[in-house]
From TrEMBL:
Gene3D superfamilies: alpha/beta hydrolase. InterPro entries: AB_hydrolase_fold, RBBP9/YdeN. Transmembrane segments: none annotated. Coiled coil: none annotated. GO terms for molecular function: hydrolase activity. This is Alpha/beta hydrolase. It comes from Chryseolinea serpens. Pfam families: Ser_hydrolase.
Amino acid sequence: MTSSVFIIPGLGNSGEGHWQTLWEKQFNFTRIQQRDWETPRRADWIDAIDKALAPHDPANVILVGHSLACAAIAFWSDQYKRKIKGALLVAPSDTEADTYPPGTSGFTPVPLAPLSFPSIVVASTNDYYVRFERAQQFAKAWGSKLVDIGDAGHINVAAGFGAWEQGLGFLKELDR
């Protein structure tokens, strides 16, 4: 990777076997730490993103968000309008859905404004946190390329995803 890559996990953080954690360790990517992984507040999360990126050249920054982090990145883009190299948005959660876990604050409604940078949304057709049609809506609204990876659950450890080589290919696509 020629860019500075920042890992942003979703609700609950990404554990030891999660592809984000494996990438972080293997490639020395930077994880953006949040104050509260279990009952997050939107303002805290987007502030943490902005502070983590501040010392870096935005033209060289790629964000890798999973689940709730995708909404956080959309809120961050909407608020700050920063131009970065790109974002890989994997398994975006629908915080407005009845099936979304309680405890988050300020993550609704999900922003539907175009992102201020190139992005790829990777979605599954059977993700329990977002209907595929809703993921399509997010990708279209954000101006993202949509990649349908079929029945892949929430694209996490529980769905059988470890190092996730295919995902690295999507990341490399943004790093051109």
